[in-house]
Sequence to fold (307 residues):
Amino acid sequence: MTGTSPSDFAKRLDKTADDTEALLARLLSDDILHDEIARPKRLMDAMRYSTLNGGKRLRPFLVVESAAVFGVPREAALLVGAALECIHCYSLIHDDLPAMDNSDLRRGRPTLHKKTDDATAILAGDGLLTLAFDIVTRDEIHSDANVRLLLTRALARCAGIGGMVGGQILDLAGEGRFGGNEPIDVARIQQMKTGALLRYGCIAGAILGQASQKEYQALDDYGRALGEAFQIADDLLDVEGDAAALGKPAGADAALGKTTFVTQLGIEGAKQRVRDLLARADSAVSIFGDRAAVLQAAARFVAERKN
Fold:
């Protein structure tokens, strides 16, 4: 057991979600920034539709709590978390498109391309992706430009060809989209498509806190274990969950013929793997003592979530 009760954890998670929501609302306002020419209404409305009023904000929460281990100012961590959330929301918009997962429902509402059209959805995703790098380079995050550079480079690599985007094309290949019979490495796809952004939430705190190599590695190991646990829990929910709780159609993976952790390990094998990953995550951050209690609770939250 950790030193953080479920109710205390829930309050911290909700607080970060509320703070992130307020920050994103400001970042996505109609106010034109220096060097911007205009903020077109249709584009901004679409970006706000897919970014505000939804989600647990787990990724920003990981940034805030991993940074808190080192006493980093919360405002700085929230900005980095907002940048990460912009990347996450852009990826959901693009994943839902007809050319990708072809989803009609997201967070209990019509997906953006259903609410508007494909072109608007594509551009809204592009806008969020670009805004993320505007945010993560801002001076308010850290006085040391090298820290901001490291944050930016890590975000690009976790979100890009060697991370989320690369994982997405491997996932599509695994569905047979491109012909041929390419071998499917579920663990590799997970590490890239889903795990990379969750891992960034953890290592961003280490970068902000100018952690030692040992401390950075601890959060890196924790983030990798948490990311895999998140994906296995997601695969289990796709089999055992219901659309009302999930806010999206259940059984989508099976409908697409995807190979998942559940299809490879079976339901009980997948649940045992999650338990093993929780133990690994706990062990990774044990070097921080009581300062790791919230992170340990976060790993349990990920593994036990219902949506």
Notes: The mean pLDDT is 92. The chain is about 70% helix and 0% strand.
